[in-house]
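User: I'm writing a tutorial on reading structure tokens. Could you give me a worked example: one chain, its sequence, then its tokens, then a sentence or two explaining what the tokens reveal?
Assistant: Sure. Here is the example chain.
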Amino acid sequence: MIISVKNLNVEFNKKSVLKNISFDIEQGDILAIIGPNGSGKTLLIRTILGLNKNYTGEVVWHERPEISYVPQKMGFEKGFPLTVKEFFLMEIGENKTFWLPSKKIEEEIESKLNNVKAGYLLNQRLGDLSQGEVQRMFIARSLLENPGIVFFDEPASGIDIGTEETIYELLYDLHRKNRSTIILVSHELSLVYKFATKVICLNGEMLCQGAPKEILTPENLQNLYGRHKAFHAHEEPYSDVIDQHDHI
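And here are its predicted structure tokens:
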């Protein structure tokens, strides 16, 4: 077990947002947090990460792996002069020569950008990027860091529909190769069904949690969203993950 959340109650702007939330995160989980807008999904992630201190209950980290966090919206001022490559070089701790990086490091950066179909961004200035391009860049950075646990707040936000599944496949690949634990907020229920090993249904309180095949039912989705929300249930191609976690 990596993280335990026990009886968590969280306020934001002096208003109660989350009530009595309890769950565990195990090594190798792909945990998806779903729910309507304003249900507290981002606030839950920020509280687990220690970015929000206004809560009661417990958030216990049993281990302290390398962490990466990709927020939902991240932007730079127009004209911000740093290029994408320079941004990556600043982030690579072992690279001591910012101005004269090795060819290997440059190739690795470009490779990770190519994985998210963003190799063309390498020499572009951060201030000139669209929201979707910024999102791809941060996902590529996470792939480069090979962290033990990754938090993604809507990883496909601002990215065209045709690329969404590619992004989730990259996250799964990060999980498979490094046994990384992934916690993500998502509205893409079909992709959650396909890739996640656990799901948390959140709307101020915990309405349901468990394996996608058990949780993503019409009744649960009606209770969660207050209306009919349909999705296409992909067949799960990743039987190795399913077997290892014994969730489905």
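What the tokens reveal: The CA atoms of residues 58 and 154 lie 25 Å apart. The chain has a mean pLDDT of 82.
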